[in-house]
Amino acid sequence: MLADLHQRVHNYLRISLTDACNFRCFYCMPNEEVDVTPMGKLMSKEEIFEFAKIFVSLGVTKIRLTGGEPLVRKDAADIIRLLATLPVKLTITTNGVLVHKFIEVFKNANLQSVNVSLDTLDPNRFLALTKRDQFQEVKDNIERLIENNFSVKVNVVTMKGINDQEINQFVAWTKSNPLHVRFIEFMPFTANGWMSEKVFTYQQILETIQEEFEFIKIKDEINDTTKKYKVLNHAGTFAIISTMTAPFCDTCNRLRLTADGKMKNCLFSKSETDLLTLMRSGTDITAAIKENILAKEKSLGGQLLTDFTKIETDQLANRSMIAIGG
């Protein structure tokens, strides 16, 4: 069992396969020209599998693959097949543009849940946000996932003055489609242009939806990062991830492994543990994993203020979102 000093048990591991991406969303990868980590410094597929086996032996029961964009990695299918042999719930977060090439891989791996990042339903705004004209490919792939009976969650980073006017369009999308739309408060990372004024809050999201829809609260599970709701007579649901205004740190069960093999015990943690170097030197990494978890701060990596309006981004010590893996 992997427990920290605050009695939180960690059974959920997020593994980043790459810090490369085929999109250029400003809040994640702000620059068009980005130096991605060379393959030799990334975890190999065999090392990823070995890490996963060790974490599973220590109590991990769920693994999510992230990036960058995990599906741009050439051996992504092989990694999925390997991890599918472990006794875990296997999931993935993707921008969706390559999903059509992986439907059968997902099925054969019993990967039943897919999160797709999509911040707008407007093709022109999609191009402005991602620097890529591939909205229709993403939309079509979401529909393919639904048709193939996958549980589909759509992640929407909601930003004031950028896409907050589309909130109710996303909710309307759940009327006939069994989608789980998740509105995510804008969060600060290195060089992502975060300003507190851009945060569209949990309460503002709810107030916006109340203008058009009648909805009920759905019960949240103990380790949920979301606050879940359902519009009456809709096939799908919506939820809010309120990191900035109502953090959920008290029940956090998540650990992160970056594509270059660094372990982070929190999305906002300053420190990392270089597990890949330890593994390649032949060192047993179990002690390092446990030490990393014991060093976990009570909330928000120990460096974000609970009053998000007073956060000074130039004082944060962290990676960009794409280098962490979300």
Task: List the defining traits of the structure above.
326 residues; alpha/beta; TIM Barrel; 12-stranded mixed beta sheet; 25% helix
| Secondary structure: helix percent | 25-40%
* Shape type: globular
Mean pLDDT: 92
CATH architecture: Alpha-Beta Barrel
Tell how many strands the DSSP assignment holds. Answer: 12
- Describe the sheet with the most strands: 12 strands, mixed
Low-confidence stretches: none
Secondary-structure-based class equals: alpha/beta
Query: What strand order characterises the main sheet?
Result: 7-8-9-6-5-4-3-2-1-10-11-12
Strand content: 15-25%
Over all CA atoms, what is the radius of gyration?
A: 19 Å
* CATH topology value: TIM Barrel
CATH superfamily: Aldolase class I
CA-CA gap between termini: 23 Å
CATH C-level class: Alpha Beta
If helices are DSSP runs of H or I spanning 4 or more residues, what is the number of helices?
10
Q: Tell me the domain tally.
A: 1
Could you characterize what this model shows?
The structure is a single chain. By secondary structure, the chain is α/β, with parallel strands linked by helices. The chain has one domain: Aldolase class I (TIM Barrel, Alpha-Beta Barrel). The protein is 25% helix and 18% strand. The chain contains ten helices and twelve strands. It has a twelve-stranded mixed sheet with strand order 7-8-9-6-5-4-3-2-1-10-11-12. Strand 1, helix 1 and strand 2 form a beta-alpha-beta unit. It is globular and about 60 Å long. The model has no long low-confidence stretch (mean pLDDT 92).
